Amino acid sequence: MPRTLRPGQRAELYVVDVTSGDRRLVHSSSSLLFEAPNWVGDELVVNGDGRLFSVPVAGGEPREIELGGVPDINNDHVVSPDGRTVYVSAEDGHLYAVPIEGGPGRRVTNDRGPDFHHYLHGVSPDGETLAYIGLENRDGRRITNVWTIPSAGGADAQVTDNEFADDGSEYGPDGKWIYFNSERAGQAQLFRIAVGSGEVEQLTNDERVNWFPHPAPDGSAIAYVSFPPGTEGHPADIDDVRLRLLTNDGEVRELTQLFGGQGTMNVPSWSPDSTQFAYVTYPI
């Protein structure tokens, strides 16, 4: 069931300059709860009410992207490196490919049974592989691990195999690492795993609950969502949610504080030149 706005609540789409911290309101709505911006060219792609929309970065009204028979979607979607295809996660548990201008959808994923769901977060720099979170229900427990699958369809490959909560899997710009958040060190922190060798590195280790690492296209920093200490999962409508940057020299910079969480920045949202990224707040 798609999320809806609470009485008196708005969804506000912003872009923020990572050098100055200046932010600009792109679009605001009191009727549609939209989420999870992707940045492609001069457009931002968001989902809302089970559908997909494109909003000009300069501001303007959303344009719906026809999903061509794909079931209602959630807030896990990514755009191919060439900007021609958007890959979406649907509420039936599968991943689909749709032309960015709209058109017939193509199912990418395999049927792994009713207790397995796919949640998309990343696409490799060459556009050939999708990184997703596979959610399995085992004896009443929710198990999440990092998986990959060819974007054209094919055999899945399991990247992590444990009972810790792994999420937010996204390729780095060189394709050598998959970045993700995990509770393997206690509360959620940021990690990366080497493609091929499986070597794991921990990237953050602090008192806050850190989710959804998004590497900049130029590799200079990682943008991520930071929840208050003790937060379980990545809930919606939380006060003191912070958007942070982790730079290559290990410095953590705080760019803004907001009311939000789920839907704020679930997917890659950097501008192509790595100077800005997009996010959503949900003020009441």
TrEMBL record:
It comes from the Bacteria. InterPro entries: 6-blade_b-propeller_TolB-like (IPR011042), WD40 (IPR011659). Transmembrane segments: none annotated. SUPFAM superfamilies: Tricorn protease N-terminal domain. It holds the Pfam family PD40. PANTHER family: PROTEIN TOLB, PROTEIN TOLB HOMOLOG. Belongs to the TolB family. This is WD40 repeat protein. It comes from Kribbella pratensis.
